[in-house]
Amino acid sequence: MMDLNELYSGKRLGVDASKDTRTEYQRDFDRIIFSSAFRRLQNKTQVFPLPGSVFVHNRLTHSLEVASVGRSLGNLAGEFIVKKYKEQLTKESRSFYRHNLYNVISSACLCHDIGNPAFGHSGEDAIASFFEKNESTYKPKFSAEEWTDFIHFEGNANAIRILTQQQTGKLEGSIGLTFATMAAIAKYPCESIARTKGILHRKKFGFFQAEKENFQKIATETQMILEQTIPTIYKRHPFVWLVEAADDICYNIIDLEDSHRLGIIDHDKCVNLLLDLIDSLDAKGLDGLKNRHHLIQDKNEKIAFLRAKSIGHLMMNAAKTFENHFEEILNGTLEKPLLSLIDEEKNSNSKAVLKQIETFSIENIYNHHAVVEIENAGFNVMSELLSHFIPPILHAENRSKADEKAIKLIPNQFLYEDQSDYHKVLGVLDFVSGMTDNYATELYRRIKGIEIGMRR
């Protein structure tokens, strides 16, 4: 079983600790908030096209809300750990779990989507598809592991890269987060060739080959359980379960609220779904809640009230589930997300209600024509950008004038001309995946000649 005194570390990649009134873990939150990578999330699609006449969530507002839920989960988990394992904890560890675990969880939640490219999953698909379509041309240039990184491009692995990669002309360690926070975002702690459907911690992958050494440092410093060396696979760090739960809670409920604001879901249908969920989690308090709900006249406010209550109940139940399965989590044997285990704890039907919400979301929200339109457009935009930049970056010894002009559009920090083809291509992916939806669309229009002229 993992040692609770060794699960956290305030160390950072390439950055020495400095004196500050804040703790190392509080500094993580502030570093993320002020980073350009986080700021760009404000113009990245969450579900619905941006911008719209009705305010809906983007990646930034989603991340802030997940961080809020994660902070509460971290606080509850920290209190539980100190209470149950007080005799096993050092003085320093008691202080960490009581006063800093929630900082780690909220920071990890804040940057959990920081690696998602423009246009979300459509952007990921476009990157992977570009390499699949050009396999005969490009595959021979890379190792099997490197090629797998490309054809299964993954936002989770890209997050680790953004948070650790030293770009040209910049400081080592990137944003320089603590190992504790970095470990907490690693939902899939394995390399790309180890990804396996049906296994929770290997459903996707968590780091590119370029960041493998850095990830191993993070894993070692936070005592992650090494499952397999070749290919490299770790068990999830215990903090990951709280970050995942916060994210699951938010997107399950808030996507529903957004669809109501846009008129995609009928008001009564939305009310009934949320009331059914609350009933499955806290049947005793349902009558009082309904009485308060009836006092609200505004329809959007009615849904906001039920959304808040739903998130609160899910959060409390997820925290309790974390407690009840904590020994399995420490042993690396838990294989189900916390939200899917709530039913087993309460003998309720919350899982069925959440499934009903998920089914509705898939049928009516994620397949809504406005969402499908931007996914198609985003796929094409990202594909064209890659087609414009990747061939020139790989033609180092025989570049045409057109190739040279294309490369001049790539900012210097993304150019790794003295490194391998793998790193050169990753530099292009850093540039393209880091774009906002708006910037990617604008650049696409300019290089295709749809829009010509000086920028302001």
Automatic annotation (TrEMBL):
Enzyme nomenclature, EC number: 3.1.5.1
Keyword Methyltransferase: no
A single MF term (Gene Ontology): dGTPase activity
The protein's name: DGTPase
EC main group: hydrolase
Lineage: Bacteria, Pseudomonadati, Bacteroidota, Flavobacteriia, Flavobacteriales
Organism: Moheibacter stercoris
Residue span, HD/PDEase domain: 55-261
Domain of life: Bacteria
Keywords: Hydrolase
One Pfam family named in its UniProt record: HD_assoc
